[in-house]
Here is the input.
Amino acid sequence: MFTVGLTGNYGMGKSTVLGMFGRLGAVTVRADGLVDKLLGDVSVLERMRGVLGETVFSGDGSLDRAKVASIIFRDKEKRDAVEGILHPLVFERIEALLAELERSGSRGKAVIIEIPLLFEKRYTGRFHRTITVYTDEVTALKRLQEKGVDRDAARVRMDVQMPIEEKIQMADFSIDNSGTQEETEKQVRVVYNRLMDEAKDGSYKRT
Here is the structure.
């Protein structure tokens, strides 16, 4: 399968752009969606409890995501430990999905997978191509605030990520999501057509 890793920094529109690729016909996967499912697994929750303690759990035994975020984005050691639990399991599920797509005869399609820490964790070798979605930080913060995200909490998350300028330089493709939806869609269509050309002729190689 022709796999494409899509990334960007917090609030810059990764999921929005992923949806645009999906509407054009790409197979799309959200790593965060896989994490949501994993956090319903009792064995995973027990491992999380071992790292973060009892205070991040609600009375019904579910994980309080806001409390988790408040801890891990301020404590690198705990953040690394949580990522060490979740990331291998996420990639297990991605590989299973890719195998199923192979069996179902989906060759010739691009599978675009949203991976927030694609470059930070050096996961680029798992993908044939990479895409960075970007805006300036002022725009990202404004959009997050419009969604009700606290500005200080957003800044904490942004500060632990690689500068977006570096991600743009490292990616095979970049998409500027600072403007209108129509402007972004036009860029997505151009990138999608290039990816489909590669997927169909088999010219892609792992980076």
Observations:
- The beta strands are 2-8, 27-30, 110-114, 129-134, 173-176.
- Residues 15 and 114 are 7 Å apart (CA to CA).
- The longest strand covers residues 2-8.
